[in-house]
Amino acid sequence: MSTELSESQDLNGLEQEENGTTRLTDICSGTVGSSMASIAEYYAGKSVLITGATGFMGKVLVEKLLRSCPEVKALYILVRPKAGQSMQQRVSDMMKCKLFDRVREDDPEFYQKIIPISSELTQPGLAISPEDVEKLGACINIVFHCAATIRFDEPLKHAVQLNVLATQQLLSLAHQMHHLEAFIHISTAYANCDRKYIDEVIYPPPVEPKKLIESLEWMDDGIVRDITPRLIGGRPNTYTYTKALAEYVVQQEQHRLNIGIIRPSIVGASWQEPFPGWIDNFNGPSGLFIAAGKGILRTMRASNDAVADFIPVDVVINLTLAAGWYTAVHRPKTALVYNCTTGGINPFHWGEVEHHVISSFKRNPLEQAFRRPNANITSNYLINQYWILVSHKFPALIYDLFLRLSGQKPQMMRIFNRLHKAISLLEYFSSQDWEWNSENMSMLMSQLTPEDRKTFNFDVRQLNWPEYIENYCIGTKKYVLNEDMSDIPAARQHLRKLRNIRYTFNTVLVVFIWRVFIARSQMARNIWYFVVSLCFKFLSYFRASSTLTN
Ligand SMILES: CCCCCCCCCCCCCCCCCCCC(=O)SCCNC(=O)CCNC(=O)[C@H](O)C(C)(C)COP(=O)(O)OP(=O)(O)OC[C@H]1O[C@@H](n2cnc3c(N)ncnc32)[C@H](O)[C@@H]1OP(=O)(O)O
Ligand SMILES: NC(=O)C1=CN([C@@H]2O[C@H](COP(=O)(O)OP(=O)(O)OC[C@H]3O[C@@H](n4cnc5c(N)ncnc54)[C@H](OP(=O)(O)O)[C@@H]3O)[C@@H](O)[C@H]2O)C=CC1
Fold first, then answer.
1. Which ligand is nearest to the CA of 193?
2. Angle between the 238-251 and 166-175 helix axes, to the nearest 10 degrees?
3. 519 versus 548: which is more confidently predicted?
4. The ligand 1 atom nearest the CA atom of 151
5. What is the arithmetic mean of pLDDT over 34-43?
6. If DSSP codes are grouped into helix, strand and coil, which group holds residue 115?
7. Which portions of the sequence form the region Disordered (predicted)?
8. 152 lines ligand 1 (CB under 6 A)
């Protein structure tokens, strides 16, 4: 069921379908002045506020805005001091990141456009100083809200504080912005993962956010922990639950602000921009790709035929910027939701992911792999448990034994325990299928000029998955693990060594087992003599026949 969009009759540039879904059309009657402006022209002279700019997606958003909208006036970014680093230090470190190489080339002074604002989103008023509130109120034209806790095991109180309450406070701040044209909220395609078919609508929230927030205020952490599974119900974690609540909170403001909601699925490395394969974290599939490349992860529960709904980060950001432009220019009267997914347009399946990840890491191996990359994904619980025992726990035990014997600290079992914890939280997403309607994404594309369609490309029909996965795997090697591509021959040599160790180990094991068997069983001895005599007879036969032909 979708929420009631009561003003269906007077939507500007929008059509409301029978089921309540709000769709874009090419009607421009509701546009403001610059409707014909290209995306870059629209952002020219604009001041943009970005939350979560130090995060994975936020950084890509900042980079793309600076590179493709060079006339943008200023990017105000909400940043908190963290891990002993001041806000300023964090921002200057961020700008040194390789991601900004292309922008740096175009404009070495690009950092002057970035204006950090100290903010801790979990604090009242987002801990923004009154002077900064005034400054933002006077100048911001567009808000992109990316900040969130994306941890799947986040305690409910904290997830609500950051994903729901902070969103609410940001919306209050947005009300004080006198020149605000658009508020773009980044959600997730899995906010409604308790449904199999997900339309571009905001579904009724699982609970009234206000009531939940009030209750959480007086409950102690123990009680909250105990009731969390009951509260989240059909959702697998507090992350998806609080992102669903946040959507509802944002929707409540749709009559007072121009709102767009972007729902990306599983965000992966960049496809094209600023260069293929850029990734800087272990979240989502990236950590598992690395674990598979290192030969540590060799089995996990996933359905071979289910769609792996990956979406490259640059596609999400291009769509986000286009949605910002559309929302500001066309001013839809109700919040538009964009399911930013690939499954319905260019599907790719978990079985194919496994195949391409493994073959890519065989071609471009990671340094110091534990074992040769090899994987077995299955949806069968028992088969998976068997492989965990044989391919994870047993090798870990042997390796730890080896470490102990050589006077080192055992570590492999600990690594596997952490990996199993991560897998247990991720398997939910790889073991089932969802269907997203992504019509708004296609229709937004139809609104762009041919030039913008190239500069802000989010046409995922053009995505070549094997090539994308290859670049993704190389990206994890180069940008997450900081490994040098020139070391690949040595890494290949290491894999050959591992293969030889495996052959030797397997041969010794088979001979050993057989010897034990022969020593204990007359039947095994008889079979052994039979096989040996058969081999001998074959050998004699071939020798005789080759003598005759000569
Ligand atoms: C058999 C081989 C097949 C090969 C390929 C098959 C790949 C299948 C991939 C399936 C993936 C499915 C992914 C679905 C994701 C759905 C996404 C929904 C979309 C979103 O909206 S949100 C963003 C997603 N959010 C996340 O991904 C966060 C998940 N992470 C967490 O919640 C926590 O990190 C976690 C896993 C609970 C661990 O917490 P904790 O123990 O406190 O430790 P740290 O966070 O400090 O990390 C510890 C350690 O683990 C590494 N790590 C983190 N994440 C992963 C991961 N996904 N895979 C592997 N390893 C991971 C982390 O880097 C740390 O390592 P250190 O060595 O640095 O300590
Ligand atoms: N990654 C993915 O696969 C997907 C992500 N999304 C959504 O995209 C958005 C961005 O995700 P992503 O970039 O991957 O996440 P990251 O974890 O990389 O970034 C989160 C950002 O939020 C900021 N933040 C977190 N807590 C606070 C706080 N208390 N005060 C101030 N800032 C804070 C972080 O700042 P700091 O650096 O200080 O920690 C960081 O900049 C999120 O809304 C997420 O739900 C949606 C679908 C998939």
1. 1
2. 20
3. 519
4. 32
5. 82
6. strand
7. 1-26
8. yes
Q: How many A from CA of 280 to the centre of ligand 2?
A: 13
> The whole model's pTM is what?
0.90
Q: Does 14 score more than 60 pLDDT?
A: no
Averaged pLDDT score across all residues of the chain:
91
Please compute the mean of the pLDDT values over residues 427-436 and round it to a whole number: 95
Could you tell me how many residues make up the chain? 550
Q: Is any ligand 2 atom within 6 A of the Cβ of residue 75?
A: no
Q: How far is the CA of 141 from the centre of ligand 1 (A)?
A: 35
Alpha-carbon span 442 to 425, nearest angstrom: 32
Please name which of 368, 37, 8 lies closest in space to residue 181, comparing C-alpha atoms. 37
Ligand 1 contacts CB of residue 480 (under 6 A):
no
From 243, 282, 298, the mutation candidate for ligand 1 (largest count of ligand atoms within 8 A of CB) is 282
Which positions ≥6 away from 472 have C-beta within 8 Å?
A: 268, 269, 277, 279, 286, 289
User: Does ligand 1 lie within 6 Å of residue 353's CB atom?
Assistant: yes
Closest residue to atom 15 of ligand 1, CA basis:
284
CA distances for 329 relative to 34, 65, 99, 385, 485, angstroms: 7, 17, 30, 54, 45
d(CA 353, CA 459): 20
Cα(506) to centroid of ligand 2, in Å?
46
pLDDT in tens, 188-229: 999 999 999 999 999 999 999 999 999 999 999 999 999 999
Q: For residue 162, how far is its CA from the centre of ligand 2 (angstroms)?
A: 10
Structure tokens at 33: 């002045």
Instruction: Please give the pLDDT value at position 523.
Output: 82
- Is 28 or 464 the better-scoring residue by pLDDT? 464
What does the pLDDT read at residue 548? 65
Evaluate: CB of 188 within 6 angstroms of ligand 2: yes
State how far the alpha carbon of 47 is from the alpha carbons of 22, 71, 102, 180, 341, in Å. 28, 10, 22, 9, 29
> What is the percentage of the chain residues whose pLDDT exceeds 90?
83
pLDDT of residue 166: 98
Residue with tokens 């055992």: 410
Using CA atoms, how far apart are residues 511 and 212, in angstroms rounded to an integer? 64
Residue 16 confidence (pLDDT): 46
Confidence of residue 36 (pLDDT cuts 50, 70, 90): low
- Residue pair 71/47 in contact (Cβ under 8 Å)? The answer is no
Task: Tell whether ligand 1 has an atom less than 6 A from the beta carbon of residue 377.
Answer: yes
Least Cα distance to 498 among 380, 321, 373 occurs for 373
DSSP characters for 257-323? S-EEEEEE-EEES-SSSSSTT-----TTHHHHHHHHHTT---EEE--TTSB--EEEHHHHHHHHHHH
